[in-house]
């Protein structure tokens, strides 16, 4: 029994002085590495939804003026955004991540055709094809304006321009559920600010 106790004591000393410290060191090193990896990422969080936290690449972040300004010189962190819903934010992130590696085709104005595909290509045409869901289209345009994401804003406005190009005023009003006519002053101001739409 004495020898057995000595053996157990010896094994415990070996474990405590050799294996255990090594295991602890490995665990601490792993946790430190994991923490650093998490720190080196950029996350978008929504103030309206405490459960929303999505990773975004640095390249995608740089395509969005507001996010780029919020990040500054850093390469990681959390970007809290207001007013946006998870549905719209997901669409925005999809757009930014794709174009981080695939530069968007420049949109020439005034547009000469209703065929969006011939202007921006397949991916952007499918992205902005919201199956006549004008509510989502308008939300996406407002989000792009809020985020200072010029390419997304241009694409949204292109979609509207293509929808109304060469259409009769009554059809356009019906299309966008406009229940009153613009005053002459309002029409002049709109044409002045968005002349490329009416060329």
SSE layout and pairings?
Blueprint: H1 2-39, E1 42-46, E2 49-56, H2 58-61, H3 65-71, E3 77-81, H4 86-101, H5 117-120, H6 122-128, H7 134-147, H8 150-164, H9 169-175, H10 184-193
Parallel strand pairs: 1-3
Antiparallel strand pairs: 1-2
Describe the structure.
- The protein is mainly α.
- The chain has a domain at 1-38.
- 61% of the residues lie in helices and 9% in strands.
- It has helices at 2-39, 58-61, 65-71, 86-101, 117-120, 122-128, 134-147, 150-164, 169-175, 184-193, and strands at residues 42-46, 49-56, 77-81.
- A three-stranded mixed beta sheet has the order 2-1-3.
- The longest helix is centred in the N-terminal third of the chain and has 38 residues, at 2-39.
- The protein is elongated and about 95 Å long.
- The N and C termini lie far apart (101 Å).
Label this structure with key terms:
single chain; 199 residues; mainly alpha; three-stranded mixed β-sheet; 10 helices; 3 strands; 9% strand; elongated
Poorly predicted spans: 20-39
Shape: elongated
Beta-strand content estimate: 5-15%
Q: Would you tell me the structural class of the helices and strands?
A: mainly alpha
| Radius of gyration over C-alpha positions, nearest whole angstrom | 28 Å
């Amino acid at each position: 029994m004495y020898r057995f106790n000595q053996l157990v004591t010896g094994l415990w000393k070996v474990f405590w002085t050799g294996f255990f410290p090594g295991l602890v060191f490995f665990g601490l090193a792993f946790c430190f590495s994991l923490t650093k990896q998490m720190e080196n990422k950029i996350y978008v969080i929504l103030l309206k939804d405490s459960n929303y936290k999505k990773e975004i690449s640095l390249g995608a972040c740089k395509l969005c003026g507001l996010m780029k300004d919020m990040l500054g010189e850093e390469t990681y962190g959390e970007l809290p955004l207001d007013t946006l819903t998870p549905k719209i934010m997901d669409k925005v992130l999809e757009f930014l991540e794709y174009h981080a590696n695939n530069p968007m085709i420049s949109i020439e104005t005034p547009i000469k055709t209703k065929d969006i595909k011939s202007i921006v290509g397949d991916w952007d045409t499918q992205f902005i094809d919201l199956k006549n869901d004008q509510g989502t289209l308008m939300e996406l345009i407002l989000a792009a304006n809020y985020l200072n994401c010029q390419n997304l804003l241009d694409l949204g406005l292109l979609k509207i321009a293509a929808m109304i190009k060469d259409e009769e005023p009554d059809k356009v009003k019906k299309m966008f559920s406009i229940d009153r006519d613009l005053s002459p002053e309002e029409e002049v101001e709109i044409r002045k600010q968005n002349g490329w739409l009416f060329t």
